[in-house]
Amino acid sequence: MDTVRLDPSDNVVTATRALPAGSEVEGIRTSALIPSGHKIATAAIATGVPVRKYAQLIGYAAGDIAPGDHVHTHNVAFRNTEAEYEFATDLRPVDMVPAVQRDTFMGYRRDNGTVGTRNYIAIVTSVNCSATAARMIADHFTPEVLADYPNVDGVAAFVHGTGCGMAGDGDGFEALQRVMWGYARHPNHAGVLMVGLGCEMNQIDWLLEAYGLKQGPLFQTMNIQSVAGLRRTVELGIGKVRAMLPLANQARRTPCPASELKVALQCGGSDAWSGITANPALGFACDLLVAQGGTGVLAETPEIYGAEHLLTRRAVDRATGERLVDLIRWWEDYTARNKGSMDNNPSPGNKKGGLTTILEKSLGAAAKGGTSPLMGVYKYAEPVRAAGFTFMDSPGYDPASVTGQIAGGCNLVCFTTGRGSAFGSKPAPTIKVATNSDMAARMSEDMDVDAGTILTKGVSVAEKGREIYALFLAVASGAPSKSEAQGLGDHEFVPWQIGAVM
Fold first, then answer.
1. CA proximity to 437, closest of 425, 413, 423, 453
2. How far apart are CA 221 and CA 326, in angstroms?
């Protein structure tokens, strides 16, 4: 099989291997070398006529395209979407698994009823000025120091480059406070130490007051200026964490229903196969999780652009669908006023992998959400309270997007990649799914699942989806994912910085 046609109405097919000029494809001959994963016109496409893949619009011919031509950035133009939105017109009922028959995993049941998949002590900073102190405190707790606390997964510092030089209200400030609250109360954290400077805009005391956070043995705060300097702050912080360790170590894994899993659905370093192999397989796994009463959280608003009309049809009601459309309009305005374009995404790597426009990328990315009804649409880092398939507003930049999903309560991350992304996350571990077998073999130490076998070995999307879902349960129970085993996750905490830096 040299090509893949995704729908009879498409006027392009995708090459499964590099095809020399003159190769015969569907009764026509290629006019140039077609790289693997790239598109070939199977009919004449006149200037201005839509280019179609997935039975959807992915761009417009920038010039006349002949049958057999390579179809890519050199001859396809992007335009902003002008979709006619429908709401709640494609609602497929979920065959829910009865509660007594639901799958289980070994998780940490917290006092407030939430369930964690890991057991960390977190050091959360309010501002960049306290980042060094937080890292010094965390670095003290080496594997040798933690050997006496086998039920503690580690001491992790969550530091960032903002928190001051920003407005004290508005989207940016509110998003950062939601991130801090989400990490402070994340079920994968047994204990939390918040570290500030003291004079920053993002005051810890304001967060405590706004969200009703109370200090106690497993939740402590301090400011460098009040403690009287960096060295004393580090010493005091080490003492506070040391006091938390015996308490955190008392946590034990117990059987918990799969309904307690909240999985961040993520992709990065995408290629042409993302929307054909890994993303549909992850979507199938998401549907399995939803049937168990669990939650899948899709994000990266710029990467559903051009596919949002398919999601509004799955919205449980009109209000939910309109919240998604409002996000799309905000992003169009946001990019325009910053003199950008929604088509600035895909990246150069995405394009090299065969993706031509954001519309094409989005149609593949949206497949991660499966087919279940869209039950809720959330702000960045807002607590995700609805069970089922949901959506969270975020940038397409993976670290910032995942930071918001984890702050929203995700206790597991599943990340598809075609080019090969070296990404991991704390405190919620990341499972990596490769879109193609070549990359899966080349980066075998990084990839947990090879979805390329859907093409190379005829494995069904459903079978691969069941494999991914089984990995959800295993990793949630404590099995290390590949990225986790390599120590990734300490530098991927990146709150989305919205607004002016002053």
1. 453
2. 37
Q: Which of 265, 354, 337, 273 is nearest to 303 (CA)?
A: 265
Cα gap 412→428, rounded to integer Å: 5
Per DSSP, the residues of 401-467 read HHHHHHHTT--EEEEEESS------SSSPEEEEESSHHHHHHTTTT-SEETTHHHHS---HHHHHHH
What the block records as the tokens of 78 is 């992007």
Give residue for tokens 């001051």.
Answer: 164
Helix H or strand E segment including 105: strand 104-109
Nearest to 456 by CA among 248, 328, 276, 240: 276
How far is the CA of 181 from the CAs of 178, 208, 299, 409, in angstroms?
5, 9, 19, 10
CB 267 within 8 A of CB 345: no
Is the pLDDT at 343 greater than 90, yes or no?
no
Q: Are 275 and 367 in contact (CB under 8 A)?
A: yes
Candidates 294, 254, 252; CA nearest to 414 is 294
Do the Cβ atoms of 121 and 246 come closer than 8 Å? no
**Residue 199 main-chain phi, psi, to 5 deg:** -105, 5
The average pLDDT across 418-447 equals 97
**pLDDT tens across 446-494, in order?**
999 999 999 999 999 999 999 999 999 999 999 999 999 999 999 999 9
Q: 355 near 272, Cβ under 8 Å?
A: yes
Q: How confident is the model at residue 499 (pLDDT cuts 50, 70, 90)?
A: confident
Q: H/E/C letters for each residue in 7-55? A: CCCCCEEEECCCECCCCEECCEECCCCECCCCEEECCCECCCCEEEECC
Say which residues have a Cβ less than 8 Å from residue 173's Cβ, sequence separation at least 6: 166, 167, 201, 202, 499
When pLDDT is cut at 50, 70 and 90, the band that residue 341 belongs to is: confident
Query: 194, 408, 196: which is closest to 299 by C-alpha?
Result: 408
